[in-house]
Amino acid sequence: MDTSDTGRTRRSYLKATGAASAISLTGLSGCTAFGGGDGGSDTVVIGAAVPETGRLSSVGNEMLRGYELGVEMINENGGIDGQEVELVVRDDESDPTLLRQQLQEITSNHDVDVIWGSFSSPLVMAGSAYAEEQGIPFLAVATCFEKPLRDGSKEWTYTPFPKTRDVTRATRGLLELIPESERPQRVGIWEENSGWGEEMAEAWDTKLSEAGYDVVMRESYNAGNQDFSTLISQSDSAGVEALVACPQPPDGITAMTQLRESGYMPEFVEFVRASDPQAWWSALNEAGNYVTMCPGWAPGMTGNGNEELLNAYDEAHGGTPRVMVGVGYNLAQTTEQAIAGADEVAPEGIRSTLDDEEFNTVIGDFGFDEYGMPEQGQLSAASAQWWNGEQRLVYPQTDSAADLQFPIE
């Protein structure tokens, strides 16, 4: 991936003159109300459009729950330097065009200090483009796609979330949890016909080949595909033992259903993105067992407010949060620390903090590079596995992580 200076922005030079330092984490717990109001000197206003309906709603609503829980806990703890946080949310219906319209409506009617992103690269990039035009700090998770972030045009966009390089490094880490004598060697890549699909396929191909794995198949498909029989047959014929892909949730559910019906099953399956939401288990039940995912957070992560998150979620909703709840909560933590570290709640001040400081959230410790991405190698890209209806952290191997279940049965 190109990391040359040709795409560097003014942010590159701001970072070159700034000194990085750690911001202490604010304690968090509690509840508040959302929406309405025009903001003001005693209110920090965050605008967000997320897919509450449409193709990506299953993951969008879980991420939104993390956003809301983070804001509730900030306000219960007294806000940010005494300022209450107000989260104004609209449904983008999984549509980038509607997302822009919703953000326009929010910013026209509210004095917005920060915009939060939606789910998936097309929606996140649509939000980024709008925020860049308006000069409003934009923070987003749920996008691993590196290429559009490296184009040199973004001064206000920050994505505290693992990237393609981190996800593919985590895939290698997952496979290395399997005893060498049992470890699958023949890898198949199903490549979604999209920018991120190509980026992920190329990165998997390179990283796993360099690690000594034999990539015996790399074939593409279109988003929304309803028939994976050809890909399944090709995988079977090639002797694929480990299958990796990054399908959208409905596509991944369809693919897993058809894999189960085919009589052929690789020993290891990683469906990044598709297996993140509860919808995976609701649709597949035991047929979805032991598939791995790389959402960047999972129950079992430790430190940086993870215990508080689990306790608050259990108190508010009962049980353990799904992975996208923690991912969304991480965005609230990042925003809180950025605003708390700024000289004033103003765009330039918040951006300066984002450029110069280190952040400590439930996904790990990181600072932003000149492209607004976490510095390379700082995030472990937490990976989880479905076990009988639960998403269990298996990588990295923290004290609370589970053992990787292998092979798929």
From TrEMBL:
<protein>
    <submittedName>
        <fullName>ABC transporter substrate-binding protein</fullName>
    </submittedName>
</protein>
<dbReference type="InterPro" id="IPR051010">
    <property type="entry name" value="BCAA_transport"/>
</dbReference>
<dbReference type="InterPro" id="IPR028082">
    <property type="entry name" value="Peripla_BP_I"/>
</dbReference>
<feature type="domain" description="Leucine-binding protein">
    <location>
        <begin position="43"/>
        <end position="369"/>
    </location>
</feature>
<dbReference type="Pfam" id="PF13458">
    <property type="entry name" value="Peripla_BP_6"/>
</dbReference>
<keyword id="KW-0732">Signal</keyword>
<dbReference type="InterPro" id="IPR028081">
    <property type="entry name" value="Leu-bd"/>
</dbReference>
